[in-house]
Amino acid sequence: MKPINSEKAPEALGPYSHGVKVGSLFFSSGQIPLTKEGDIISEDVKEQTDQVMKNVQHVLEAAGMNFDNIVKTTIFISDMNNFPHINEVYGSYFTGKLPARSCVEVSRLPKDVQVEIEVVASEE
Fold first, then answer.
1. d(CA 16, CA 50)
2. Which of 7, 50, 55, 83 has its CB surrounded by the most CB atoms within 10 Å?
3. Of 20, 25, 71, 103, which residue is the catalytic one?
4. Residues forming a β-bridge with 3
């Protein structure tokens, strides 16, 4: 097991890595819409989703991967009414293969953000 951390993504909010690589698999921690400096990007759900996807990209790059390597995503959102907006931004990051995905509405997310995304990726 190899911890993966990106200097381009915000620091972890607790005792965890941005992700972990095990063999050819990469498991990310949930990414929220924080800038590198640790600030919430905006209150706008589309802008939050875009920042989350940028953070996911930075963490994938630190693992030597990209969006084409993602096999599964899990999206946590605080309001299912925002799903179409989140889906629009999320979808713009995938140009080839589409990964499997789950989307779950939760009562609260860290720092009271509106969206959090974690991924599982594979080198295969």
1. 23
2. 55
3. 103
4. 20
Number of neighbouring beta carbons within 10 Å of residue 124:
8
Give me the residue label for tokens 């925002």.
Answer: 82
Please report how many Cα atoms fall inside a 13 Å half-sphere around the Cα of residue 99, on the Cβ side: 22
Instruction: Indicate left, alpha or beta for 85 from its phi (over 0: left) and psi (-120 to 50: alpha).
Output: alpha
Please write the tens of the pLDDT for every residue from 92-105: 999 888 999 999 99
pLDDT along the chain (124 residues), means of 10: 96 92 98 96 97 98 97 98 98 94 97 98 95
Contact partners, residue 62, CB within 8 Å, separation at least 6: 4, 5, 6, 7, 8, 9, 18, 19
Q: What angle do CA 118, 120, 124 make, to 5 degrees?
A: 155
Active-site annotation holds for 103: yes
- Structure confidence by residue, pLDDT tens digits, 70-80: 999 999 999 99
